[in-house]
Design a protein that fits this description.
The protein is mainly beta and 369 residues long. 1% of the residues lie in helices and 43% in strands. The protein contains 1 helix and 29 strands. A 5-stranded mixed β-sheet has the order 1-26-25-24-23, with no helix packed on it. Strand 19 and strand 20 form a beta hairpin. The longest helix has 5 residues. The two termini are 32 Å apart. 50% of the residues are buried.
Length: 369
């Protein structure tokens, strides 16, 4: 799951210098973004036209959604009934080719609800069947595909997660992976932003009764295939997490080994899994390689955490070659650095960096024309 707070329970070869240097960076802040530690702009993704989207945290740490078009123009928005307290507000997580947005909002009571925003700004809010209505419960809408289907997961009144699909007509399918746990903090989730492709294939992860993560992919006919990356740990908080699926059925993700070190993997449509580590990745607990995004061509972007617990960006080509990078202004202390989240078919990458004061800024890394 690409979301920073994925679930509430848990809580080689270098490219040539010419390729690595043929990039331009744009660092941006949404109007109204706060400038204190833990505030700022978090760019969550990008579409083929170069439109980026995400949310920003204002000076009161309230979240608001935004769209940023390729020429730099911003549209800001709030879901109806979004809360106005710290940690509440509107969170945008996925965009369609038509610039439709799916996301969720946290209301004044701490309950999460899903929303759909049309290109023209009309917002529809919804709750998945069975979603809980207490603080920390509710509906997390994390993906929208070209057909307008939204996918995500809900936490019920017992704090168990269940995945859902919401079709454009408002009808729902709620499902659980067969081996998902049924206690608080367990259950079935989805990846974020790119988990649902045009064919209706959905990728995600579930947490079993022993609090171990496992990956799954659900076909459009409802058939579910579970899988684990080679080397994934089998203890609580370890296992296999999934980032999404592209039109070819390729699935990127991250696994936690028995020492708590993070490693990347990519699962091909024929079920073959290749594991990898970014150059420079640390080898201590909570360090390593954290894939996040996958484009149509199979290039993977994400971050790696070095031995000093600083984050840096990487992009891995379909052939397995790496380029690493840092956004201008990214901090160099533990917990700071560069956090790429998604890449588009043109090779543009968006995400955010955390500076020396702990403030987040959006960035766009584009191929030089």
């Amino acid at each position: 799951m690409s979301r920073c707070q994925s679930w509430k329970l848990m809580g080689i070869l270098l490219l040539s210098c010419a390729v690595a240097s043929g990039q331009t960076f744009t660092v941006f802040d949404a109007p109204g973004a706060g400038t204190g530690a833990g505030q700022g702009t978090l760019s969550e993704g990008i579409n083929l036209e170069g439109t980026t989207f995400g949310y920003y945290l204002d000076s009161n740490s309230v979240a608001h959604g935004f769209l940023r078009f390729s020429h730099g123009f911003f549209i800001k928005f709030d879901a109806p009934n979004a809360g106005t307290g710290a940690g509440q507000g509107t969170f945008a997580f996925s965009i369609s080719p038509e610039n439709e947005i799916a996301g969720d909002y946290i209301d004044g009571k701490g309950v999460t609800h899903g929303f759909f925003r049309s290109f023209f700004g009309h917002i529809i809010t919804f709750d998945a069947p069975g979603a809980g209505s207490s603080s920390g419960e509710g509906t997390l809408a994390l993906n929208i595909n070209p057909e307008g289907t939204i996918a995500g997961y809900e936490f019920d009144s017992s704090d168990v997660a269940h995945a859902f699909l919401r079709h454009r007509d408002g009808s729902f399918i709620v499902f659980d992976v067969p081996h998902a746990g049924t206690s608080a903090g367990q259950g079935t989730g989805t990846a974020s932003a790119i988990a649902l492709n045009q064919e209706g294939t959905l990728a995600g992860a579930y947490i079993d009764a022993n609090n171990v993560l496992h990956g799954y992919v659900r076909a459009s006919d409802g058939a579910v295939t579970e899988f684990d990356a080679p080397g994934a740990g089998t203890g609580p908080g370890q296992g296999t997490d999934v980032d999404g699926v592209n039109p070819q059925g390729t699935i990127p993700g991250v696994y936690f080994d028995s020492s708590g070190v993070l490693h990347g993997f990519v699962r091909a449509a024929d079920s073959t899994i290749t594991t990898f580590d970014s150059p420079g990745a640390g080898s201590g607990a909570a360090q390593g390689t954290v894939p996040q995004g996958l484009n149509f061509e199979g290039a993977i972007t994400g971050s790696y955490i070095d031995a000093a617990n600083v984050a840096h960006g990487f992009v891995r080509s379909p052939e397995g070659e790496f380029a690493t990078f840092d956004a201008p202004g990214a901090g160099t202390s533990p917990g700071q650095g560069t956090f790429p989240l998604l890449n588009n078919a043109e090779g543009a990458i968006t995400g955010y960096d955390v500076d020396t004061k702990g403030v987040s800024h959006g960035f766009l890394r584009s191929p030089r024309r």
